[in-house]
């Protein structure tokens, strides 16, 4: 594994019309590019993940798994607006000498893809054999396959959509309301909004899992308990976990990015945009996903030319895309066994 940083001193124009004076991209690579340069796997990560895909997608990526460094050259770049090394709200604005905080401009999925494009060209990658992502990562992969249809051979998108739904936007807005209700967020300090971020994560978990998940994993065995329930402890624990590794400013920025996702923007329609995908495409839905319901993945498969739709039956809701790696492996292996039509 290699972690590297690409420094881009040139101004980076954003879709919103604003400009970042400069850009930094932190990325990981695993394995070696082969002589034919046809073993590239590019991973687009989700909301609070990072560039170390071997850490957060174990079972699908890693030694002895389907996507391994012995066979593949694997690339994962930290997304624009995050807090794991790529330019984001806690980065220093060279024009002011201070961190951006709330002044960080609005970032779109297309901006994230434009940053991926800069890195791809820097690495001299002309073809991506497999482009894969789930959730927000799937939104990036889909947008990239539309913007650059000639470079992607296989597109694997999991638990994602063509445009973010009112339901998803409402969940994100509720989380942002929680963060903004924390007065420390408005102080523009690195640890601002921590209590709000904790609450936001607790809200998000309700969309990542399901009623049945909580009923089984947080079930009470003490019939006489009237307080300090398992589900309450779990929400607090998960909130603290995120607070210890993320920041409120990046969280708000990235959730707004997700809200703005719409492949049909300035392209006439969503359907015509999806028609531009040329890659051999596998769309995977998760039966119990309430945040990105399977109707959204079926819609993708219906309008992407030649796309194949498969569904995973999972107990874990939306988080199944990270947990059900054995089922994902089986579906992907079957899909990849059929050669790309020439």
From TrEMBL:
Protein name, entry field: Homoserine O-acetyltransferase
Alphabetical UniProt keywords: Acyltransferase, Amino-acid biosynthesis, Cytoplasm, Methionine biosynthesis, Transferase
Pathway(s) it belongs to: Amino-acid biosynthesis; L-methionine biosynthesis via de novo pathway; O-acetyl-L-homoserine from L-homoserine: step 1/1
Reaction(s) this enzyme catalyzes, per UniProt: L-homoserine + acetyl-CoA = O-acetyl-L-homoserine + CoA
Enzyme type, top EC level: transferase
Encoding gene (name): metX
Domain of life: Bacteria
A Pfam family matched in the record: Abhydrolase_1
Function: Transfers an acetyl group from acetyl-CoA to L-homoserine, forming acetyl-L-homoserine.
Assembly information from the UniProt record: Homodimer.
């Amino acid at each position: 594994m290699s972690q590297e940083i690409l420094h881009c001193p040139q101004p980076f124009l954003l879709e919103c019309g604003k400009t970042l004076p400069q850009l930094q991209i932190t990325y990981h690579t695993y394995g070696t590019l082969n002589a034919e340069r046809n073993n590239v796997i590019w991973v687009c990560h989700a909301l609070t993940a990072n560039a170390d895909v071997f850490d957060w997608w174990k079972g699908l990526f890693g030694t002895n798994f389907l996507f391994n460094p012995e066979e593949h050259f694997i690339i994962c770049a930290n997304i624009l607006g995050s807090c794991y090394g790529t330019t984001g709200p806690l980065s220093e604005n060279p024009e002011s000498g201070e961190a951006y905080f709330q002044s960080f401009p609005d970032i779109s999925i297309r901006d994230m893809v434009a940053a991926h494009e800069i890195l791809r060209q820097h690495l001299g990658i002309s073809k991506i054999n497999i482009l894969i992502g789930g959730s927000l990562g799937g939104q990036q992969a889909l947008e990239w396959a539309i913007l650059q249809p000639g470079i992607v051979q296989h597109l694997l998108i999991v638990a994602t959509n063509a445009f973010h739904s009112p339901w998803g936007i409402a969940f994100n807005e509720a989380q942002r309301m929680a963060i903004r209700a924390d007065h420390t967020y408005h102080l523009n300090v690195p640890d601002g909004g921590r209590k709000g971020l904790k609450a936001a994560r607790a809200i998000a978990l309700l969309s990542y899992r399901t009623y049945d998940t909580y009923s089984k994993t947080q079930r009470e065995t003490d019939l006489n308990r009237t307080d300090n329930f398992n589900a309450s402890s779990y929400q607090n624990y998960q909130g603290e976990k995120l607070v210890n590794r993320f920041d409120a400013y990046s969280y708000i920025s990235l959730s707004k990015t997700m809200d703005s996702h719409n492949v049909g923007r300035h392209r006439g329609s969503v359907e015509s945009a999806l028609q531009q995908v040329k890659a051999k495409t596998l769309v995977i839905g998760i039966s119990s996903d309430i945040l990105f319901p399977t109707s959204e993945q079926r819609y993708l498969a219906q309008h992407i030319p030649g796309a194949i739709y498969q569904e995973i039956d999972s107990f874990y809701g939306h988080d199944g895309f990270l947990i059900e790696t054995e089922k994902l492996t089986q579906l992907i292996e079957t899909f990849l066994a059929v050669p790309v039509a020439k």
